[in-house]
């Protein structure tokens, strides 16, 4: 049964648990699986190779535990004098109180309880030699020289076991013979010579494996001899001897500890190592230490690697969380490198003490695991960098395009360079040395996105440019086309189209000049120019349509007709006389005007070359996908046949009215009364006027009329009254004219033709005047 116990601690080295002993292997040959924890408790876990292991061998009850406790401050059980029975069962371990030394108290050989069972002795020897560099062989002075004694059997076992473990190696072990109850009668040198001779004899008798026949005992063992005085009879001398012996458990020329004795098992792996050694030993398997060390290295390197990886992931998790925010994390590469360096350093510190090959390969595994963990962070950072670089590009582009007179290619080039540089710098920062990562693909994707954004922006800017040129074009043609469309004639369309062509040419030149900075392709230029032409044509068509609405067209026709019919060649209004050929002039003017309807009905220059050329719709479309279909041929038609007929008939009706009016004006001029007739009438009425002025009633009436006129003037009623009176006057005048005309045109029947002739002639003459 595995047990541990605590005795009164004698703490001299600061380790509270140092004095606690533990049963590593119990009497039933079971290994204590908690040994590693005990190494921890003893404060040796991180000692690396800087510790030593000492084991004591010897017959039962020869004072082994007593010696160890005195030498190392350990707390092994010591046999009760009164009982005299075996105390140490199995193998116990305790840390020396002021030295980094693990001390093993091994069950005594030739124990009464085990009887003839030599199995445990051999196994414990194998176990102790595999892990301890100093083997204390405890024996009474009086036993020396007794070749048949138990000690000889023990030594033979030790030598054989050592040979099987380290036969082909240079590993050495110190055999320290502690001669107990050394009375001093036989000098120590003699005793050691005897013992050396005994051991040499044993060495000679042991069968050596093939190839090792010529090896010497001293190739494997260093021998040291110490004598201790009788503890009961010479207690002071005994104490002094022990004290002296204790001083030799050091490094140095006279010290027992030597680097060459060490088994080179890192302290943190001692528990696992001893466990696997004992497992091999107890199951009677061949104990191959190199293999054991390799296995130990694998086990421990895995453990160390796991611990390093856990510490690493707990730190890296925070970086991972930050990245989930969608923003590139500043100095992520630096942090990642630190985490990795820290993890590897942690691994190296402990694992590098183990089997070099295993350590190297486990380090590579750990590195790969670290990289595997970091890679998604790297990718997430690249993704975030991609986003931020695109955003930077857009900002730079917008800023650049806001400036007056920008050069598109330069703005895009600068923005692109800044975006790519930002991405590369960020991506370089997050690269980890030795990790087989690159960001070529992401950079390529960024380039593709930048190209798409550039294409979109270019398309927008080109549309804006075409719109701007279109506006300039419209201004250019506006007044000129208005003017030309107001002057209808057979050459009207030629002039209009010439104006159109000149403005379009200017617009196209403006486009070509600006398009250079966009680095546009010939295909894009062709599309844009076509769009420009289409829009220009549409703008012209809009102008034409504005001028050919029914109302405006009729007004134009009327004006044209009036100009021809009512004004002479010199632009002076005609006053019709009965000698004028009103009918002929009317027909000519009307027909010429009707001709204009045909001119307005279709855009048809006399020179067909003036018409612009457009590719068929299905072959070519402009930059505006949304533009309504462009049908050039249809656009030439302005007035349909039916519309022409309608406008012609409306115009004719208006023209007929002018004709009638012209005819009437002749009649009215014939019937006009000369003004001197009104003068004669006024003169003839002088006496009546004097009569009215001097008549009180008439005078009062006049004064009242004057007062009324004044009131009307003050009340601003003069205008309306004047209008009414003028209307009344006109009516009276018209009535008077009618009466006079009747009177002069149809005088009362006269038998004398001469008389009729005489009466008509003066009237006619008068009217003609
Ligand atoms: N004569 C003599 N007796 C000693 C000496 N050292 C210890 N003893 C006594 O020997 C007895 C056995 O001592 P232990 O230290 O228990 O011996 P051990 O070899 O550890 O015994 P086991 O663990 O049972 O094998 C005790 O009674 C001690 O007092 C010594 O140097 N000389």
TrEMBL record:
GO CC, alphabetical: endoplasmic reticulum membrane
Lumenal side: 694-696
CDD domains: GBP
Spans traversing the lipid bilayer: 673-691, 697-717
Membrane topology category: Multi-pass membrane protein
Positions that bind GTP: 58-65
GO biological process: endoplasmic reticulum membrane fusion
Keyword set, alphabetical order: Endoplasmic reticulum, GTP-binding, Hydrolase, Membrane, Nucleotide-binding, Transmembrane, Transmembrane helix
Region called Disordered, residue ranges: 745-769
Entry's localization field: Endoplasmic reticulum membrane
GO molecular function: GTP binding; GTPase activity
Location of the GB1/RHD3-type G domain: 48-282
Keyword Zinc-finger: no
Chief location category: endoplasmic reticulum
Matches recorded under InterPro entries: G_GB1_RHD3_dom, P-loop_NTPase, RHD3/Sey1, Sey1/RHD3-like_3HB
Residue numbers on the Cytoplasmic membrane side: 1-672, 718-769
Entry's family note: Belongs to the TRAFAC class dynamin-like GTPase superfamily. GB1/RHD3 GTPase family. RHD3 subfamily.
PANTHER family, per the entry: PROTEIN SEY1
Protein name stated in the entry: Root hair defective 3 GTP-binding protein
Organism: Dacryopinax primogenitus (strain DJM 731)
Gene: SEY1
């Amino acid at each position: 049964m595995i047990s541990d116990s605590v005795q009164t601690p004698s703490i001299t080295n600061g380790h509270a648990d140092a004095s606690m002993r533990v049963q590593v292997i119990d009497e039933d040959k079971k290994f204590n699986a908690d040994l590693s924890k005990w190494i921890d408790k003893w404060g040796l876990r991180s000692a690396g190779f800087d510790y030593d292991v000492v084991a004591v061998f010897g017959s039962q009850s020869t004072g082994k535990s007593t010696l160890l406790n005195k030498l190392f401050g350990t707390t092994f059980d010591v046999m009760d004098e009164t009982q005299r029975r075996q105390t140490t069962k199995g193998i116990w371990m305790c840390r020396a109180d002021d030295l980094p030394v693990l001390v093993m108290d091994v069950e005594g050989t030739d124990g009464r309880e085990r009887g003839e069972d030599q199995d445990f002795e051999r196994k414990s020897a194998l176990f102790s030699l595999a892990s301890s560099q100093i083997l204390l062989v405890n024996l009474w002075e009086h036993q020396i020289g007794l070749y048949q004694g138990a000690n000889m059997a023990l030594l033979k076992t030790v030598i054989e076991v050592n040979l099987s473990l380290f036969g082909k190696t240079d590993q050495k072990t110190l055999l320290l013979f502690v001669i107990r109850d050394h009375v001093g009668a036989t000098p120590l040198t003699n005793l050691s010579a005897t013992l050396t001779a005994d051991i040499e004899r044993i060495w000679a008798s042991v069968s050596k494996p093939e190839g090792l026949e010529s090896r010497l005992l001293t190739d494997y063992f260093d021998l040291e001899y110490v004598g201790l005085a009788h503890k009961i009879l010479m207690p002071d001398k005994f104490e002094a001897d022990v004290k002296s012996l204790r001083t030799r458990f050091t490094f140095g020329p006279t010290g027992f500890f030597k680097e060459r004795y060490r088994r080179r098992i890192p302290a943190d792996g001692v528990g696992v190592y001893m466990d696997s050694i004992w497992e091999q030993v107890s199951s009677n398997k061949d104990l191959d230490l190199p293999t054991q060390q390799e296995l130990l290295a694998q086990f421990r390197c895995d453990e160390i690697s796991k611990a390093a990886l856990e510490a690493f992931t707990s730190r890296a998790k925070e970086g991972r969380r930050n990245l989930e925010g969608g923003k590139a994390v500043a100095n992520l590469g630096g942090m990642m490198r630190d985490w990795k360096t820290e993890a590897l350093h942690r691994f190296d510190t402990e694992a590098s003490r183990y089997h070099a090959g295993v350590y190297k390969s486990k380090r590579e595994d750990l590195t790969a695991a670290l990289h595997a963990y970091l890679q998604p962070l790297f990718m997430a950072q690249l993704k975030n960098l991609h986003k931020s670089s695109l955003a930077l590009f857009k900002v730079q582009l917008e800023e650049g395009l806001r400036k007056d007179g920008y050069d598109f290619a330069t703005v895009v080039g600068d923005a692109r360079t800044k975006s790519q540089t930002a991405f590369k710098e960020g991506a370089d920062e997050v690269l980890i040395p030795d990790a087989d990562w690159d960001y070529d693909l992401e950079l390529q994707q960024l380039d593709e996105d930048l190209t798409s954004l550039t294409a979109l922006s270019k398309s927008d800017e080109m549309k804006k440019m075409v719109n701007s040129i279109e506006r300039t074009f419209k201004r250019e043609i506006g007044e000129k086309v208005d003017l030309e469309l107001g002057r209808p004639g057979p050459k009207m369309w030629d002039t209009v189209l010439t104006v159109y062509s000149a403005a379009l040419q200017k617009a196209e030149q403006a486009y070509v000049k600006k398009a250079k900075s966009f680095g546009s392709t010939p295909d894009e230029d062709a599309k844009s120019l076509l769009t420009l032409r289409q829009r220009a044509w549409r703008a012209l068509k809009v102008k034409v349509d504005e001028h050919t609405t029914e109302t405006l067209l009729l007004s134009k026709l009327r004006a044209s007709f009036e100009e021809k019919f009512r004004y002479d060649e010199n632009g002076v209004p005609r006053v019709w006389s009965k000698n004028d050929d009103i009918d002929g002039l009317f027909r000519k003017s009307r027909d010429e005007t009707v001709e204009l309807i045909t001119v307005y009905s279709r855009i048809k220059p006399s020179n067909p070359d003036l018409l612009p050329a457009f590719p068929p719709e299905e072959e070519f479309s402009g930059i505006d996908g949304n533009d309504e279909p462009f049908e050039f041929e249809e656009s030439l038609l302005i007035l349909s046949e039916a519309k022409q007929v309608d406008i012609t008939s409306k115009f004719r009706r208006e023209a007929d009215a002018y004709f009638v009016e012209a005819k009437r004006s002749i009649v009215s001029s014939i019937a006009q009364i000369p003004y001197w007739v009104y003068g004669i009438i006024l003169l003839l009425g002088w006496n009546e006027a004097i009569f009215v002025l001097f008549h009180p009633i008439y005078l009062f009436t006049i004064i009242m009329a004057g007062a009324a006129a004044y009131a009307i003037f003050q009340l601003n009623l003069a205008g309306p009254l004047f209008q009414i009176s003028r209307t009344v006057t006109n009516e009276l005048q018209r009535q008077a004219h009618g009466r006079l005309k009747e009177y002069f045109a149809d005088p009362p029947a006269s038998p004398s033709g001469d008389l009729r002739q005489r009466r008509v002639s003066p009237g006619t003459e008068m009217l003609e005047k």
